[in-house]
Amino acid sequence: MRSPRRPARPTIYSPAFxxxxxxxxxxxxxxSAFFLLPLYIKSRQGTEAAIGAIMGMYSGASII
Length: 64
Known about the structure:
Blueprint: H1 15-43, H2 48-63
């Protein structure tokens, strides 16, 4: 006698969920880096121009 099969349980890890997770991660990563990255660059003897250029590239990359 065959045992009855359980119905497949839907998973939360759908492509839409993974995409939303990655978008959220990138957004909040950019938000925290906006405050912390300049401090790190300054501690590594970075100039104001270097901080501005890197922050501009980082912000531009987060839009893409």
